[in-house]
Amino acid sequence: MSDDIIGHKSVFEFFGKVIENDNLSHAYCFVGPRGVGKLTVAKEFSARLFEITREKLVATPDFLIVGQEQDEKTGKTKKNISIEQLQGVKNFLTSSAFGKKYKVAIIDEAEKMSIGASNALLKTLEEPSLWTVIFLITTDEDLLPATIRSRCQVVYFYPVNKIEIAEYFVQESFNDELSKEIVKYSQGLPGKAIVWKNDLESFDNYKLERKRFVNLIGKPFYEKLKNVDDLFGDKTDHIVARDKLQDVLFVWQSMLLSESFEINKKELVDIYNQILYTIEMLNKNVHPRLLVEQVLLKLP
């Protein structure tokens, strides 16, 4: 296992045997929370098939990764992964390999494929080319069409033991006190911990969101509205703004599970479910301010 990958020993053992026995499936669906390491592990396995390091994947003509793109005219993030992108994946996989036998494609945030893109992928999965491997990366396999899920081998990624994350920070000789704080809030998500390590401003922003949520409790509704007003200020890229809002809601959600509030169990469950509903509706382009206001109304 690579020294810079934290956890997921069982996943590495499984793929180690699969690669050793030359028994790869043509498609895998990696499922797990954001920051758990799905994409990094998919890249690592891809690199092993090419017998190179992950850093060299970008220059490998037999490797392709697709995800949400920016619109060339507006500069804004596109809502979906497009049918044209998946048609490109099909053309890529059906062409001859430049190097060794494998061709590998990764579809990041696969749940964001448009209907047309999903149909294009389905055709590729139904008629897989020899020596090709597709990795789908998603937080929830239920957001993918059943026809696609049934043609993939699903691999689940779970939060890792915080001790493993702490050991990584020791190896990196990172600031001891700051390491302990990052590990504490990481929720067992190595990717999140590494992002914070490399970008301390993002960690400060996370702590500010925790403080924001605490300050919402017990306040009049008008004060709650004022406290969240800055969440809706970015009009330049609605897709990016929506994703940032979802990140904030994930912070609130995790605090309900990990912190103690003077909220009875029924209210806590109602708030948690309202946040879940809000995240789901944001993916369906329901007005974000109205959704967040419904969450605020649930808060005591």
UniProtKB/TrEMBL annotation:
Signal peptide region: none
UniProt-listed SUPFAM superfamilies: P-loop containing nucleoside triphosphate hydrolases (SSF52540)
Tree of life domain: Bacteria
Single annotated GO MF: ATP binding
InterPro entries listed in its UniProt record: AAA+_ATPase, ClpA/B, DNA_Rep/Repair_Clamp_Loader, P-loop_NTPase
Classification via CDD domains: AAA
Domain AAA+ ATPase: 24-160
GO biological process, one term: DNA-templated DNA replication
Annotated protein name in UniProt: AAA+ ATPase domain-containing protein
Source organism (scientific name): Candidatus Magasanikbacteria bacterium CG_4_10_14_0_2_um_filter_37_12
